[in-house]
């Protein structure tokens, strides 16, 4: 018969109404926030709503993406290293976003909140590590080939899961009290612990920006060579499409989080929360739903399933007497 006051305080009101402020209105933008930023209640609600909706859509899409890659893994075109990297990136983002939504329910300073902060640190670092692997693999495919497929496989796994583990172990052992203590289940801003995430993330973003520029130049040059066939609009369209496809897996839009340093740059927080909470949706859209190789592989798999079920039905059908006589 009463309102819960867990995580909330009464700010103002009278006998007719009450205005409450709750500390569970956390949003996606806290992940890259390097300076304290006071937000109005309206902006807190808006950013929190964007985070919940965006992450929910993203989680659903990433789950479909992982299942799709798993089902089509026997098809030769999907069995290659590129889709293996996509699957690992999707898994890391999926787990990180699920943990992020769960972490909003815990109060800061508690043991569950601290554990959640450590897990979030590891899986978001892993997501960035796999974005770096995406960039390096793209570089090896388009610009410069290095190492054999087998050596690259071990190298990629070492970067994708090994390097985040090392960073987390060092961070936890040196600054355990910086996890989940102030305001939310994340790294503290007070003693600079947030840079244990932001610094590796910025490194990955800068490397991938360089790779994206180099790849875009090559695509533009190829388009220019086909100028007489396709025309100017087709060349520009091809380059724009390539950039749109690459942005979600390279994580460059995460730079918006660092740019939000005061109330005047609040727009960057909204851009950051929108684009990055929906990162899984964009991965599903460009690398699964609209991907010609995945579509072709799915059609091939469907045809195989159809032929297999037809064969099973034919085996189970009893022959007519006339067939036996013949």
From TrEMBL:
Pfam families found in the cross-reference section: 7tm_2, GPS
Sorted alphabetically, which keywords does the UniProt record give?
Disulfide bond, Membrane, Signal, Transmembrane, Transmembrane helix
Its main subcellular localisation, reduced to a broad class, is membrane
Q: Where is the GAIN-B domain?
A: 1-38
Q: Which SMART domains match?
A: GPS
Q: Which residues form a coiled coil?
A: none
The reply on keyword Disulfide bond is: yes
TM regions (residue ranges)? 50-73, 85-103, 115-133, 154-173, 193-219, 240-261, 267-290
Q: Which InterPro entries match?
A: GAIN_B, GAIN_dom_sf, GPCR_2-like_7TM, GPCR_2_secretin-like, GPCR_2_secretin-like_CS, GPS
Could you tell me where this protein is found in the cell?
Answer: Membrane
Q: Which residues form the G-protein coupled receptors family 2 profile domain?
A: 47-291
Task: Give the membrane topology, semicolon-separated if more than one.
Answer: Multi-pass membrane protein
Please tell me whether the keyword Plastid is annotated for this protein.
no
What PANTHER family does UniProt report for this protein, alphabetically?
A: ADHESION G-PROTEIN COUPLED RECEPTOR (PTHR12011), ADHESION G-PROTEIN COUPLED RECEPTOR D1 (PTHR12011:SF216)
User: What name goes with this protein?
Assistant: AGRD1 protein
> Organism source for this protein?
Polyodon spathula (North American paddlefish)
């Amino acid at each position: 018969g009463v309102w819960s006051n867990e995580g909330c305080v009464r700010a103002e009101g009278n006998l007719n109404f009450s205005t409450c402020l709750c500390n569970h209105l956390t949003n996606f933008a806290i992940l890259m926030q390097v300076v304290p930023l006071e937000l109005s209640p309206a902006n807190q609600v808006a950013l929190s709503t964007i985070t919940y909706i965006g992450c929910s859509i993203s989680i659903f899409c990433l789950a479909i993406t992982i299942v799709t890659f798993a089902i089509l893994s026997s098809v030769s075109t999907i069995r290659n290293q590129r889709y293996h990297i996509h699957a690992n990136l999707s898994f890391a983002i999926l787990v990180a976003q699920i943990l992020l939504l769960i972490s909003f329910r815990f109060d800061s300073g508690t043991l569950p909140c601290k554990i959640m902060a450590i897990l979030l640190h590891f899986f978001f670092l892993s997501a960035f590590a796999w974005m770096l692997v995406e960039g390096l693999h793209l570089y090896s495919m388009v610009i410069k080939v290095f190492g054999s497929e087998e050596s690259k496989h071990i190298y990629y796994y070492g970067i994708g899961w090994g390097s985040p583990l090392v960073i987390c172990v060092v961070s936890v052992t040196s600054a355990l009290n910086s996890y989940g203590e102030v305001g939310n289940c994340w790294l503290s801003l007070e003693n600079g612990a947030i840079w244990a995430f932001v610094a590796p993330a910025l490194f990955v973003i800068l490397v991938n920006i360089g790779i994206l520029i180099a790849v875009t130049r090559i695509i533009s040059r190829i388009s220019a060579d086909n100028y007489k066939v396709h025309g100017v609009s087709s060349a520009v369209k091809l380059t724009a499409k390539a950039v749109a496809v690459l942005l979600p897996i390279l994580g460059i839009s995460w730079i918006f989080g660092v740019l939000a340093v005061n109330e005047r740059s609040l727009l960057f927080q909204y851009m950051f929360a929108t684009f990055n909470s929906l990162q899984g949706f964009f991965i599903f859209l460009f690398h699964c739903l609209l991907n010609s190789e995945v579509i072709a592989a799915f059609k091939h798999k469907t045809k195989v399933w159809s032929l297999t079920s037809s064969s099973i039905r034919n085996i189970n059908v009893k022959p007519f007497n006339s067939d036996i006589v013949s």
